[in-house]
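User: Predict the structure for this protein chain, please.
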Amino acid sequence: MTRQFLLVAGLVGAGLAALPALAQEPDPAPAPFPPAATADEIPGEDRTLVTPPMAPDAIQGPGARNPVAPQPLAEVGSAVFVTNATSFLTLAIGASRLADTQAGSERITALAREMASVHLDAREALQRAATTDRYDVGFPPSDELMVQGHEQLLLDLSAQAGADFDRRYVDMLVQIHRQMDEMFATYADAGDDPQIQVFAEEMLPVIRRHLQLALEIEGAG
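Assistant: Here is the predicted structure, written as structure tokens:
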């Protein structure tokens, strides 16, 4: 397994650590982040969801930690992980691509371009890990890369522009990367496919760096 996405993450940290504060205007509290797919929604997969849905108060305010810890599992099903991880990565790519035309700050646009590039590389790496000759877990078809709740989040974000877009986009990055941190850490510890476990473990430093960047911007605002 290559580690190309770790190298890209270094560029994000080096070039975007000093982003300016976002405009300080009141913004309504975000709606609870929707849960990703459950095992029951994936044919042939009867294992527990990789990470439980976040409580509504777990995503409020800069620097907040999600108090809902991953459920203790002896083994985590790969089909659930691949479905959920693909959806989160695709949501991050889609949200970041919207910034090209809708962001209110050039620096947010630059951040978004890096985010889109890193998450696209990660999604391709996950696809390779999930479809090897030895471990063919399968990968969602191109028209099913996001679960329904994530599609709605992206649609809602597309209605924003300027400073409103910047705030909503950064908040979305925080929520995405909080959930990915717990989900990927759980799978790295207890996943049932060694190839995908390697992918999850190697992605964790990237996810945590992105979360740190987003929290710094959110906190500065």
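The first helix runs from residue 4 to 15.
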